[in-house]
Records
---
Amino acid sequence: MRGRLVAGNWKSNGNLAANEKLLGYVRANVAGLQGVMCAVCVPYPYLDQTRQALAGSAAVWGGQDVSQFGAGAYTGAVTGGMLREFGCRYVIVGHSERRSIFGESNAVVAAKFAVALQEGLTPIVCVGETLQERETGAMEQVVGAQVDAVLAAAGVAALGSAGVAYEPVWAIGTGKTATPDEAQAAHAFIRARIAARDAAIAAKLVMLYGGSVKAANAGQLFSMPDIDGGLIGGAALVAEEFMAICRAAERR
Ligand code: PEP
């Protein structure tokens, strides 16, 4: 049986006082979760605060991006080794905001994925189509190319130590959620694409849905056969809501 994971993506949000409350709530409630890994992916400056708040609890943490280069003359870039020093287990790569706002191509995202693994992190690679791509019937072509770039850069075996988040761009931060059937269809497509290379790796790959997940819709989404949890943006900033989403990922 595949593991379950709910990861919060704080994006460029937070401050020391608000984080303390949020992390304190996560710490106080995570022990009660059955069979669900709970992670928070925080802005870099808050990694030390996060480590101090969550160390010794069942919750884990990570970064939201990583350099595709190692140490060296890359001003502003943060390496996987640095994230490891602050206790990160996970790192998100290829979030649609990195792709669209910061211009990251499929090749750059795939390079980040490969480097994150080499540096001892578990990458969660985000894939997903825009509304226009969905409406023109290009979802499979777009998402397939995003997945193929990772397979080409890192090899299919790498997906045995990683996660994939399907995040339709039109559902991120918009309040529009893919229906459970739409999300399931995309997850099944991605899993099948990976299974064509290695069925065993595909069967155990943890796949998250992301896009306006709330406590009210999480249960239905997480009950779909190929959805193993969620990548949560806005709702991850609301302590009770985030932990309710984590509980919705428990198997019943
Ligand atoms: C995200 O940014 O990864 C995300 C899914 O955001 P939201 O939950 O706010 O749609």
---
Amino acid sequence: MALNQQSGRVFDAVVVGAGFSGLYMLHRLREAGYSVRVYEAADDVGGTWYWNRYPGARCDIESIYYNYTFSKEILNEWTWSSRYAEQPEILSYINFVADKLDLRRDIQFKTRITAARYNEENRNWEIRMDDGTSVVTEYFITALGCLSSSNIPKIKGLDSFKGEMYHTGRWPHKKVDFSSKRVGVIGTGSSGIQAIPVIAKEAGHLTVFQRTPQYSCPAQNHPLEEEDIRKTWENYDETKQLMRYSQHGVPYGPRMRSALEDSPEERERLYEKAWQEGGLFTLTYNYNDIAMLPESNETAASFIRSKIKQIVHDPEVAQKLMPTYYYATKRPIIDTNYFETYNRENVSLVDIKAAPIMEITPDGIKTTDNEYELDVLVFATGFDAMTGPLFKIDIRGKNDVSLKDKWADGSELKTYLGLATSGFPNMFMLTGPQSPSVLSNMMVSIEQHVDWVADCIDYLREHHLEAFEATEKAEAFWSQQCHAIADMSLLTKTDSWYMGANIDGKPRGFLAFAGGVGLYRIICDDIAARGYEGFTSVLAHDSTDDSKVKEGFFMSNIDPQAWFILKQLESAGAPPMELLTPELARMGDFSLLAGAPEEVAKVENRTIPVPEGEIPVRIYTPAGEGPFPALVYYHGGGWVIGNLDTVDVPCRMLANRAGCVVVSVDYRLAPEHKFPTAAEDSYAAAKWVAENAASIQVDPERIAVGGDSAGGNLAAVVALMAREQGGPSFAYQMLIYPVTNHAYDTDSYRDNAEGYFLTKNTMVWFWNHYLRNEEDGQNPYASPLLAEDLSGLPPALVITAGFDPLRDEGEAYAERLKAAGVPVEVTRYDGMIHGFFWMPGVLAEAHNAINQAANALKQAFSAVKTI
Ligand code: FAD
Ligand code: NAP
């Protein structure tokens, strides 16, 4: 392709595609004063709704939410006729918006973009059209649609068919006449399921060629009253917020309850209610784990199968229609009389998994066991989704590398936020791969992407920045994130177009971001607010600033899983702990982070005596014959919050892996019980274990103390107390990111003061509740780092986290122990945050740390034995 010199006009931005995305992008940029040109292959606006004119085509998100929200005026001037509008009405809406905003004057129709090449010297793109002409643009924005590249399977004999052939995604403008004809439909995805009931009514005979049966629920479509629409528009600001910060872009979400928590009768009642109500998410939103847990999923799946059995009269046909994959791991489908259609005399179902299609003949379809004569053949066979439309353009970035080659292997598909990819500066992909797009109400995703890109371009112009590009580090991070999140669910366990599995030879890999549109928006906004972290850019040639390259910065080495947890916690919108009362702060539930508790041979809850009272303990005894070594464990929580449940999961894991009894101690909390109560309770508990060892199957010679955070502080303090107050003698101390000093003057406090789960302010709040006065803070039983002499203490394991305000004081304590001659193993988990030790439900590193601690304990215990 010739370079810029031979090109035609120069634009600030070229947008490819005139569907919902491209039209709004044009509007935003034009309003901001940029010169923009949109190129569209079709002869008019509409995108999806221009091309997919098949009978029965309608939206699956309620129309009142499946529209633009950026303009109150547009909202107020439009009404929808029904809950799920049909394609012609949606297309009219798009035309109405295009007219209202006078968009067509900047759109060149009937023009396909065939190539786009980045010019490194000029820092701009040359865009080439199918008529051989080209233009130059600074920003190249793809609004190609995720589902715009139709998939017609390469079946032998395809071109020999004498009848009419259509693909749902390339439907002709004229009405297709099915009357009295023998019609075949291949495909039973959303498109097929919408088209089949309508075609069946008209056709002489309809044969459906089904490869995979589908779950589908009734849409329960109905006309909308104008009054209802008006009311929705009146409260739209609030509705909009709910949509924007939701999982799927609708103003409601799942009930926070597992399907397994309800009785079968209650589940049946709720599923039946959802079936009657209709809607895309109604059934799944009864519970929050249908897409996560196979057992929960099966409750919904079997309900739908039972409905198919009820509806379809012929049991053999019903059986063929029963899906078995995990429900909702393909985009859920809603229908109008789909299963009922198989009760019609003129409809037959062919299972092409049992008897595959051999070839298309001039007269119809030949399967391995039959021949079907057809006049019309409809392909409802879907799309080469997400990457398909991008790969149809020869997009070349820096060093002439093509996007197709860069992403040749599925595991290599790397984007940053689904918006950009390294090596392709100034190129933005609207609803691109690895964004939430297809998993959501696309309108919410589209508006969010367009707004983000428009704001970004404003920023670049204001700061005289050019060649804006995602870094390799950022895209590796994001891609890892996308895979990790998808893998947490059942989404990756099904062959679907989300996985690229519908196209022969397409590399497999989950193509979207499954963390939800709300979280995604927060992440994108956060990255923009940090000066577009994860992107690099270059100062404009004509800038007066003499610094050459303005490197973007990226969020250091934080572990992607930990970062995701932080963003989720942030998006939950909980107030900082220091603004709560201790009672309220204690109500926080982090059990999801801890994960499922594993079985331990015996778990006993009891109380033990301490000075002036008694406290609860939980004793975990592993399988096997005692006496066992023991770990006395103190939970974290800044001496103010936390309890036995907080650390139940790691205690179970430690008991099983270290083969020791774990006695978890519920010491009394501040501010009701200030310093030194927690320390004294902890010491009393350790002494109780030593003194009552036989009664709990413990070997008194092999007792360790340990804990995390404030619990690590207590473990260190108990070791000091035991040395100074006559025992017992401990085999080991296991200090997980311990608090060791009442001071805030370390680098880790400065670097990690906020944004990494435990904040400096929260730590100040904890200390203030715990200590009676400043003097207490100097007491080694509060700040063991200040103890004059640390010699003679038990060997220690000190684990710290890179992104923890307490990192440096933990490591300083390890250094002092070493200097005092105490054997110490110290490990920093670089990418981790405070608290990670009790988050094995979501962090792989928690498993590593727990295994490390268990091995260290085992070794320490066996060292005692050999003495
Ligand atoms: P599109 O509407 O696909 O527009 C992309 C445009 O780019 C097309 O017009 C195409 O011609 C043009 N184009 C592509 N490549 C080139 C090129 N090289 N040169 C020039 N032009 C090019 N989503 C929902 O959220 N809810 C729904 O109910 C829903 N229903 C759907 C129903 C169907 C039948 C389909 C197929 C999809 C549906 N979707 C739905 C997804 C739908 O695609 C989006 O909601 C939305 O319409 C996408 O808008 P877009 O502008 O991003 O892409
Ligand atoms: P799809 O979901 O990919 O379904 C394609 C169908 O064709 C599947 O049944 C598939 O079978 C079958 N198929 C594909 N290749 C085949 C082959 N070689 N031989 C035989 N059968 C084959 O495509 P779609 O129905 O067009 O929907 C795509 C997406 O568009 C939807 O998921 C949705 O996001 C959107 N959409 C939405 C609506 C709506 O309700 N608003 C309507 C239409 C589309 P397998 O399952 O075995 O692969």
---
Amino acid sequence: MTYVYMVSAALFILSLKWMNSPATARRGVFAGEIGMLLAVVGTLIGGHIVEWQWIIAAFVLGSAIGIPIAYLMPMTAVPQRTAMSHACGALAAALVGTAEFYQKQGTGELTPVFMIPLVLETLLGYLTFTGSLMAMGKLQEVLPQRPITYRNQNAVNFVLFAIALALGIRLIMVPGDTLLFPIFAVLALLFGVLLIIPIGGADMPTVIALLNSYAGLSACAMGFALGNRLLIIAGALDGSSGLILSIIMCRAMNRSFTNVLFGAFGQIQTKQGAQEQRAYRSAGPEEAAAILEAASTVIIVPGYGLAVAQAQHKIRELFDTLTRRGIDVKFAIHPVAGRMPGHMNVLLAEADIPYDRLFEMDEINGEFPQCDVALVIGANDVTNPAARTDKTSPIYGMPILEVDKAHTVMVIKRSMSPGFAGIDNDLYYMEKTLMLFGDAKAFVSEIVKELPAKVNA
Ligand code: NAP
């Protein structure tokens, strides 16, 4: 079994490495799946399992829930789905810890070496469970998006966490105190809720990455408690990758962890002065097609709206049409475009847009000043020049795609309404900007139709 676990651990590490690049991502997913299969089979044949009927019942129930979710949940709901799987993983770890605690009462096995990881596993497991459910509710909009705040909130949360931790330490020292355990578990569950309510909906994807990290650490601690090396490795990989992902997201938004967790970002902004109506220019598909046809370089900037509209295949048609015409077409990918890092890459890959046409923000920003047309499709915050110029803006300092430097900017979206961060975009009022109002898929389709026949030939 040790060898099976070693192969499985190697496959997990290779899986993470391969998932780093779109070209090897499929291989990475496959390696991860084989690794997990080996881990499960290795554990089952390793003789730890005594009650097969429970394993089969859990397998059937899990598959009955998981398979429809995999097929029915749209790409735009990936953050919620991820939150749900963290909630389930964390609850599983916490329940295993709880069962171990009660089963091993009186056996003399609840030594401090056993109890330290068990307390960590259950504390992180229970708080991640409720925290992930809250995050899921906010993203699904069944809970209020706005941060819920009150006076001394951070102090209250800190005290609550300190009490839970103190009870955990007491359990390590006096493991026979079985009445204390439920209080400890309830405090951890409550802390998960209170930790998330002051965080705005716009920060939930980052919070989910952080909760991913907690769930991984909880599984890692469970590995120590159960003496299972593969769980230790897999949990550590999960915990560290979640942490790295949340660091990447924070950097891409120029935010710190403390700001995300305790900053209550996304509260209703107090309006300064009367709201003025600002002028903007709009155009139809015919004019947009003519502008694209006259360009020699076009940079397409995809965003969340593209994912909502499922416009990726139409964009592929537009890409093919323009490329045939000899126009240089590139895609600019912001690290937090969409709702999770990599969201745009996956969508564009689904439509077989060549990977070598996709450019990261730092690679492409220098090209906007020479670019004839920047075509923004369903992206908003990641193009807002206020991030560079307006010190009062909540997104000030966030690195953006500098589309405002292109000769002409065209923006496909349905209205003038704001994006995820809930703020107006100065880009739309610039003289060089044309607003193309409509659903991304329908509008791109119209543009493709409008491009002259010789382009399509
Ligand atoms: P965004 O700022 O949310 O803007 C998306 C735009 O798409 C909206 O303004 C919306 O305008 C438009 N839209 C929606 N449905 C559409 C449709 N069917 N057709 C055409 N347009 C449509 O998205 P983004 O520019 O991709 O920025 C991502 C946001 O998520 C940022 O605020 C970022 O900080 C945040 N975020 C992302 C991550 C991550 O990891 N990716 C993590 C944390 C936070 P209309 O309603 O007018 O159509």
---
Amino acid sequence: MKLNEKVIAELAELLENAELQAHDVVKITDAHPEMDWDDAYAIQNEILRRKLARGNRVVGLKCGLTSRAKMKQMGVETPCFGFLVDYFTVADGGEVKISELIHPKVEPEIAFVLNKPLKGPGCHVGAVLAATDFVMPGIEVIDSRYRDFKFDLKSVIADNCSSSRYVLGGMAVPVAGLDLRTLGVVMEKNGEAVAIGAGAAVLGHPAAAIAMLANHLGARGEEIPAGTMILSGGVTEAVSVAAGDHVNLRIQSLGCVSIHFA
Ligand code: OOG
Ligand code: MG
């Protein structure tokens, strides 16, 4: 750790206020170039602590920057992990007010729901599939708190990996009999296909993202509890949205989910 507790608390407050008040900030590594990975996750944890103290509940976890398309779009080479809390949840077909967000983008994701805990190190795709109750289609709404959506990996980890809103829907399908690598993914904005991909875009197999999260937490002596919902990361580039936009995601064998921006 390079930052002291006071600076970590101040940066968490700055980033969380930016989220809650929907305004951008300059990326925190500009003023703190010495910060390290543990500092970045400590700031994210402090944001979580603030939310829990206010009565929010964790409803899931997320992996980010797990596809080449996303890494290239954001200029970052390594996946990151974050949390999802209750008020991020939008009902299928539901509405998000653009005025509550800064510069939102949507991305198509495969969500996993576990029925067994997962613990690294050594977690692998097979262990993830054996612990998966079902998968579902999900649209994640990301909204970096950083100006112009530009950041480096440490800044984005501190900012809870741009987490903002998400919607799950479609069918809950057990993974036995599904090849998650070849599932086709089509995301439409206002009826036009704006992002097309397949599951293998996420680290060769979306379950590899979940294994990576289990190994990341394992290195900190933590595990992913049974019952956890996890977003495995955007399959394609994220797409900007504005008021009036309707977004629909269709994943082969898993059905559709949609969201509207007002
Ligand atoms: C970081 C969060 C990335 C994903 O699925 O890749 C993410 C960002 O792109 O702002 O959620
Ligand atoms: Mg995402």
